[in-house]
Amino acid sequence: MIRHEETKFQEVWYEETMADGLHVILFHKPLFTTTSCLLAAPYGSLDCREETEDGTILNFPSGTAHFLEHKLFESDHGDVMADFSRLGANVNAYTSYEETVYYFTTPDPDIEKPLSLLLDFVQNFAVTEASVQKEKGIIQQERSMYLQDGDSRLFLETMRSMYQYHPLREDIVGTEASIQAMTLADLEQAYRLNYHPSRMNLILVTPCDPEAVMDLIRKNQASRTFSAPVFLKRALQKEPETVFRARSETAMDLSDSRIMKGFRLNPDIADDRLRLETEWALKMKMDAWFSPQHAAYQTWIDEKKITPYFSYDSEISRDQAMILFSDEGLDPDAFSDFITKQLEDCLQAELPEESLSEMKKRTLGAFLHLFDSPLDLAISVLHGEMNRVSLFEEFRLVETMTPERCQGLTQKIDLSRSVLTILKPLHR
């Protein structure tokens, strides 16, 4: 077990890789009264096409990761959620594009039973054919709910415009056809390949004694046997240079129209640290430009260039990169032209030192707040592991950012691949 200390933030954490490859990180918070623990597999909705070391391509139905998340809560003896409740612990899970995470929080100072239960149920595939068939109807209802939500549908239609092959074209839960086509064999193969302990992270934020907790994990893992791990990597199909469609319109049961202007960027930054630094530089420039910090922001609202519902987001990940803007009730083409011009100006203008300083203060505040929430801290530590840039390294990237560096990272971003998505009220 390796002890780490970040003196600036007075944080201590421990790290160990178990004999079977399970990577464990434990943040010791002796003054906390609750423990949060998560067990994560690097298997999300983007991983429906994977490649083995010998070049074999494995295809899984869209939504397999989410379906697996649902089914692992079944155990040989009943309902796992009820088991956690009897222990006084709250348990839940989520599937994202990149990972599937199972977690619990408990106020009990003795975490042996809930921790053992988490390790046991996630590392035991007890799914039956009958339960798979039953689950299909439940997930179809969940999918229908998402498709009727305006925000979810706006994002989904934008992804379908940006990409021709990328899994982002489909919701995390999958398609109607892929859900119906799901088999027990699909789920078991995906589980055996992607839930090997050597691919997983166990993150704890706890007041409990670190050595005692690590010893519990060692003994639990030693009681299991696993096959040899299989090398896997995500195998996305190469996208055309152009977007799939530049404009789309969809009628929905809405009270007012919704618009999204999206820009598909090139996710071609191989170095993880540089990629994350670029993402932060873009975020800080956009936060300074497309917010009340900008001198003209209120004028934009008064002139109906944007509305109080205006929002924006950006992402630069290994396999996708984009900038998104959305609003309601405006002329779509006027909104598109306005956003394009403002974004071009934003990327070319140097971020003033005072604005950058304000962004850094906000980031530091949000960063410090993480350490008051066990679950938020555990999830942020996990994201650091997934990004291959630790939480503290990420903060230092922001802390050392200069206007010149910010400008150099963002001014050459290519905005040539853009799409416009419109959701129109059904009865207007």
TrEMBL record:
Pfam families: Peptidase_M16 (PF00675), Peptidase_M16_C (PF05193). Residues 62-175 form the Peptidase M16 N-terminal domain. Residues 182-361 form the Peptidase M16 C-terminal domain. SUPFAM superfamilies: LuxS/MPP-like metallohydrolase. GO terms for molecular function: metal ion binding. Signal peptide: none annotated. Gene3D superfamilies: Metalloenzyme, LuxS/M16 peptidase-like. This is Insulinase family protein. It comes from Stecheria intestinalis.
